[in-house]
Amino acid sequence: MRRPWILPCGTVVVMAVLTPTVIRTTSTSWTIGWSAILLGAVAVLILLVLVERLAPPADQPGPDDTPET
Predict the structure, then answer these.
(1) What sign has the CA pseudo-torsion 19, 22, 24, 27?
(2) Distance of CA 59 to CAs 4, 35, 38, Å?
(3) Per residue in 5-56, pLDDT tens?
(4) In three state form, how does the secondary structure of 28-50 look?
């Protein structure tokens, strides 16, 4: 089963598009917080992609699941 990626990817894209507007604000702490959330979201997406690529499919038996003869 493939995970639905549209919501997390859409969130990151919207944040990336709005980032120039946030950077132009005068509140430095708000800008730092926004940047931290954006970088954290990108890092979580990268980790999710890595886990999905490295994990074996659910219907495929692992090496320890084969019966011994």
Answers:
(1) negative
(2) 19, 39, 35
(3) 777 888 888 888 988 888 888 788 888 888 899 999 999 888 888 888 887 7
(4) HHHHHHHHHHHHHHHHHHHHHHH
